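hey can u run this one w/ iron/sulfur cluster bound, need the structure tokens asap thx
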Amino acid sequence: MASYCFTVTRLRLALGTGARRFHVSTAFSAKAKVAMSRFEPGSSINYEKMHENISIVRRRLNRPLTLSEKIVYGHLDDPAGQEIDRGRTYLRLRPDRVAMQDATAQMAMLQFISSGLPKVAVPSTIHCDHLIEAQIGGAQDLQRAKEVNQEVYNFLATAAAKYGVGFWKPGSGIIHQIILENYAYPGVMLIGTDSHTPNGGGLGAICIGVGGADAVDVMAGIPWELKCPKVIGVRLTGTLSGWTSPKDVILKVAGILTVKGGTGAIVEYHGPGVDSISCTGMATICNMGAEIGATTSVFPYNHRMKTYLEKTGRGEISSVADQFKDDLVPDEGCEYDQVIEINLSELKPHINGPFTPDLAHPVSEIGAIAKKSGWPLEVKVGLIGSCTNSSYEDMGRAASLAKQALDKGLKCKAQFTVTPGSEQIRATIERDGYAKILSDVGGIVLANACGPCIGQWDRKDVKKGEKNTIVTSFNRNFTAQE
Ligand code: SF4
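ok here u go:
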């Protein structure tokens, strides 16, 4: 309650002093108006303002900057006066946009309504993904969720319409996948009321998970405070190959840094190995940076991001990003607080856990480790998808394995569920026959929602408390999550 009252007071202060609206430089608008998304034609990308801020900070600090610094300092409220000391000072920032999932959006919207402001100050969106329980399959589970959560969905939809917030209805997809497909772009600063918001770092964005009160501040046009992050550099060399996937990069990093190793820091990937990773793969890596406590994670702008922007109908954004490329990659000679080196050519597929995401095991050793540790050897359920691993690339790999099994006359013995990250992914895997292969092998395609990942799973195959083994491509693995 204290934080609620505090937020409302700050909102009223903002109202009294004139809350800031979409902070778009008119100079830039006059030059090149590229909308932040196809749903927000009135809000333009402001690379010019970011460039101006970076130039001011660069003159003051007189040293090469990391990419994280460029994007974060590029969003300073007062670049000329702000005290900047990594790990010590607090920065006052102007994020470009806000994203909320349906569980956290309820309180955030109530608080925003209490402010009396007529509209949100920055583009914002609500995503209905957390309240859909997995039970039978996508269509039926979605229908039941709409009935059970009708009041919540109605509130969020009407509040969104009234205050100028985008609304993604249940079934449209998981917040982070929707952000990646529609709203993230290189250099944008986004805050989201969900811990895996950093997913957007795969598109060169600084996306940070926050509490609802912080989101309300930004929607009200109040500068947002963040302790000046340290920067951990992860230098990638070599190339990914074989069955090693982008997920193995972050499983390896988690094994090195542990669940607390990223606290107060942005993890910045760089080096020649970056180009061998797809944009959605980079998003997977950034998404799971939350498991090591990092403020967020980010990749430098490259041709993989450009291709992804073009394929998702945002070629105009990549064209303008090309013009500002120097601001979207780290400076030569920039200094990191810590550097980790990973040779992708030597990286092997990993499985992490159980009970903690930093317990990394090469797949080749997991059988022996399981026997030695006394874990149940029968895998009861395999779950793929979620916001972390439901890209077309991930689904394609799973479908390829399933096809090989089918060709040998094999079907799943264990339960197998598939959670597409968005309707776009679901429709694409349906169109290309992957969904059929996955269901032919015994998979159940669930709703485009969080489902089992958040514990929204009406599981019937084991009794509550019974020790059992499941394997997931999700980002979290804590005791009794499912
Ligand atoms: S799929 Fe899991 S990690 Fe992703 S937003 Fe939903 S609950 Fe969070």
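Residues 129, 174-176, 194, 196, 386-387, 450, 453-454, 474-475 surround iron/sulfur cluster (CB under 6 Å). anyway lmk if its weird
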